[in-house]
Write the structure tokens for this entry.
Amino acid sequence: MDRVPVKEEDCFKREVTEDTKVKEEPQMNPRVGCKRKLAMSSLPCVKRHKAELMCSGVRDKTAYVSLQRFTEMNLLSDYRFLEDVARTADRVSRDIFLTRPKRKKYLLFLKNRARKQGVYLRLLPSGFSKRRENSTVFDHRNQQFCWHVKLQFPQSQAEYVEKRVPDDKTINEILKPYIDPEKSDPVIRQRLKAYTQSQTGVQILMRVENMQQNLIRYYELDPSKSLVNNLRNKVIIEYPTLHVVLKGCSNDMQLLHQVKSESAQKLGNGD
């Protein structure tokens, strides 16, 4: 069979055409890749991917990762993400242009209303943790405070928070869900076993504010009286913190009236 003669010109055209096709195909560049996909892509592929899937090119930091695939890199990424959130929240809280004047007026209103009840309420700047935690509000309908109350149980090394506690509620009523042997929550009752099984009873103490740094004294509150009666004529920084102490275990917590009586006794003895 005779071969068909091929002109050199046709061969040259075919080689040029194939070479042009190769040049038109996007070259894979290992340095460029979509951050949301593991496959490496060229710049045109990345642009097409972003346009088709509305992809920003930034990895989704909140995407679900199964426990089997969770690595130290994921842990580090989550830690940095939480740091960024905290940094953003702190920056917003410090921005004077984002601070609402109504909020400042409301805080001033709380201080004035507390003063009318004989409670000297002190509020901290917005950067402090107690300022962020405080959920105290004033109920206009019932004309009473609903306090944010922190309860500390040192003998069990436990701490709880009660939010929106009406100021006419007694301390005994506040503590009932915690240390009442029958009506307390079973989980909390187990945690506060030292209190629920105690036969000696408890003392309710609250730290005296606005004293010298080296002096730590406590008021002893009456659990049968309402919260507002116990807070009257006292300085409260943001919200009251009540120390629930077993009787006989508060030797290292000096009471204010004990200090006064000891001073009077020394003066009477001429010391």
